[in-house]
Design brief:
This protein has strands at about 10-15, 20-30, 35, 40-50, 55-65, 70, 75, 85, 85-95, 100-105. By secondary structure, the chain is mainly β. The protein has a domain at about 10-80: Roll (SH3 type barrels). It has a 6-stranded antiparallel sheet, with no helix packed on it. Strands 4-5 form a two-stranded antiparallel sheet. A two-stranded antiparallel ribbon has the order 9-10. This is Large ribosomal subunit protein uL24.
C-alpha cells in the first residue's frame, strides 16, 4: 500500500453502498490494506451486556464505522475537490544550513502538495 493514504486525509468512496461520499480518514490498517473513514460504511454491531466501572449497564445495538479496502477510496484533490491519484516527488529542503532530500506527496491531477 505504501503511504499513499494517511490519517487525516480527505478521501472519496469509489465503490460500495456509500459511493460518492467524502470523509476524513480516522485510522489506517497497513497490514490489512484497509482504512477507517469518518461517517462512511456504518454497520450495526451487537455488543454483549455488561457493566462498566461506574456500575452502569452497557451493551445493545451500536452503529459503528467499519474499515474499507484502500482500493475503494481515493484522495480528494485540494484544488478541484475531486478524487485523484497520489504521486511522490523528492525535494531538497535546506534547514539550518543542511540540505536534506524529502519525499513529498502530491495530487497528480493538479500537482498540489497533499
Amino acid at each position: 500500500m505504501g503511504a499513499k493514504i494517511k490519517k487525516g486525509d480527505l478521501v472519496q468512496i469509489l465503490a460500495g453502498k456509500d459511493k460518492g461520499l467524502q470523509g476524513k480518514v480516522l485510522k489506517v490498517f497497513p497490514t490489512d490494506a484497509r482504512v477507517l473513514v469518518e461517517g462512511v460504511n456504518r454497520v450495526t454491531k451487537h455488543t454483549k451486556a455488561g457493566q462498566n466501572e461506574n456500575g452502569n449497564a452497557t451493551g445493545g445495538i451500536e452503529v459503528v464505522e467499519a474499515p474499507l479496502h484502500v482500493s475503494n477510496v481515493a484522495v480528494v484533490d485540494p484544488e478541484t475537490k475531486k478524487p485523484t491519484r497520489v504521486g511522490f516527488r523528492e525535494e531538497t529542503v535546506e534547514k539550518n544550513g543542511v540540505s536534506k532530500t524529502v519525499r513529498v506527496r502530491y495530487a497528480k491531477a493538479s500537482g498540489k502538495d497533499l
